[in-house]
User: Which sequence fits this backbone?
């Protein structure tokens, strides 16, 4: 979203919805594994993080979780 002055009346705000067009639909199995991975991250359940990361493909679950959360594994 972007808020800017309206072109018609600069004193009025205009709300602009931005769409970058980079969205993709994933199959139900991927979505379930991905959401379970995030729940495992939030619950700090290392075994489940490993399980769901491996189901999604990456072999380094610690690196994968760090990339997704933008935090080091030790945090």
Assistant:
């Amino acid at each position: 979203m972007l808020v800017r002055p309206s072109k018609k009346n600069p004193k009025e705000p205009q709300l602009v919805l931005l769409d970058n067009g980079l969205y993709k639909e994933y199959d139900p199995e991927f979505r379930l594994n991905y959401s379970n991975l995030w729940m495992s991250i939030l619950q700090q359940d290392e075994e489940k993080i490993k399980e769901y990361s491996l189901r999604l493909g990456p072999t380094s679950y610690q690196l994968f979780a760090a990339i997704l959360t933008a935090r080091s594994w030790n945090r």
Remarks:
- The longest strand covers residues 2-5.
- The longest helix spans residues 28-43.
- The mean pLDDT is 91.
